[in-house]
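Read as chain and fold; for instance:
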Amino acid sequence: MKDLEKMIKELEEKIQNVKDNNELNAIRVEYLGKKGSISLLSSKIAELPVEEKKTFGAELNKAKNRATELIDAKKKEIDDKILNEKLASENIDVTLPAMSIPVGAPNILENIIEEAEEVFMSMGYDVVDGPEIEEDRYNFELLNIPKGHPARDAQDTFYIEDETILLRSQTSPVQARTMLAAGGDKPIRMICPGKTYRRDADDATHSHQFMQIEGLLVDKNISLSDLKGTFDVIAKKLFGENCETRFRPSYYQFTEPSVETDISCFVCKGKGCSLCKNTGWITVSGAGMVHPNVLKNCGYDPEVWSGFAFGFGAERLAMLKYGINDIRTFYQTDLRESKTFDRRDV
């Protein structure tokens, strides 16, 4: 008991002369560490008679608590002194300009897709998703591209397993799945934006991965004029009310007739410039009436049902709309580069 009282008294005297946290920590180890003076007294309990163990144990705990209180109080006193000295020595100039912290921004492809989705949803279309790892049946065969068809070579597909499982080369498989799920007796209005993959050398205008926004409408008595009217609405929403459109004959395996869809150049207003190659028109999409074979393959009677399909490249739309010259820019992670994409104020 006398040893405990002596230790606490010594501790009180030493703490009075402590000037910093390093000295205080040394004292903490000296008294309360594993081999500290007070901690070592715990081993003495085993040597005491049974009737004295309880009393000595209680006093030992009191001594430990008292030592902890003294050290903690001194630490608070030192910390407060350090803080007050720092506050007194530092001056904050509130007139200095704030630091500019770089932050990410929504990728411009995401903005384009959301903008297109809003337009189509306002016209009653559903936004549908599908698997990126696809079966050959949905990616080609149901879309009037049987095995051996030269179009398969043109798309240069990433095959995963025995030419039956692949990374989808277009989002058209989602259209086929949607028609099959509808059972061949329900009208359909849907778009399917998403990633697609083709074996292509990456350069300023090509990428092995790109985003498509494809659409499909199936109903009774649908004609090419319905497609033209739909395309007019989309073009004006995306490129301005003065945007004009036109169709040119083309060929796709899954549509008949097929068309290339052009918009009037929004830079030169149709007069001719480098962007439109002096034609006054820019091609932005492929489209056409759904091929009777595709309707039949997906459960629809082409004598009763008809429809149209179309597809945009999201990167192409964004490059045209925002004057971007290199498709690889969309996939950079450098914040200095992505800052260009920040269209939250547009």
